[in-house]
Amino acid sequence: MSEINFLVDFGIDNPVYETAKQIRENVFIQEQNIAPEIELDDFDQSSFHIIGFDNDQKTICCARFLQINQQWQIGRVAVLQQFRNKGYAAQMLNYIETYLKEVFKIKFIHIHAQKPVQKFYEKLGYIAFGETDIDAGIEHIWMKKEIE
């Protein structure tokens, strides 16, 4: 696994969001058949967006993170198909956690994870809580992690 680089920006009027949007359209709208109006929602305007890219400037992954009701949440975690299972999502989540800890001094992070990838998040220290629910036609579970 090679190290990747990250860029973070806030809101939707920037190149980071535009690149993340392309990845999300590919992964969620095309691959998972999620409706565009559900995938690209109003929360994007109040979110930090992150993209991961390699040394050749090839974009690999993205996510968003935002604060809702005093709680920081990570969402829309997406890795382009050809880069999956190479550790890039874990690198990105580590980067987000460090960013939130250093910039906002937070101690807990939440994620509304798709049920099929729950074990991936558990390996990174996230703990499931509550009941499963359906979001965009896909089973999800809330998970949280204490950031040390």
TrEMBL record:
Keyword list, A-Z: Acyltransferase, Transferase
Residue ranges of the TM segments: none
Domain of life: Bacteria
Domain spans labelled N-acetyltransferase: 8-148
One Gene Ontology term of the molecular function aspect: acyltransferase activity, transferring groups other than amino-acyl groups
Protein name: Acetyltransferase, GNAT family protein
UniProt-listed PANTHER family: ACETYLTRANSFERASE (PTHR43420)
CDD domains linked: NAT_SF
InterPro entries referenced in this protein's UniProt entry, alphabetically: Acyl_CoA_acyltransferase, GNAT_dom, YpeA/RimI_acetyltransf
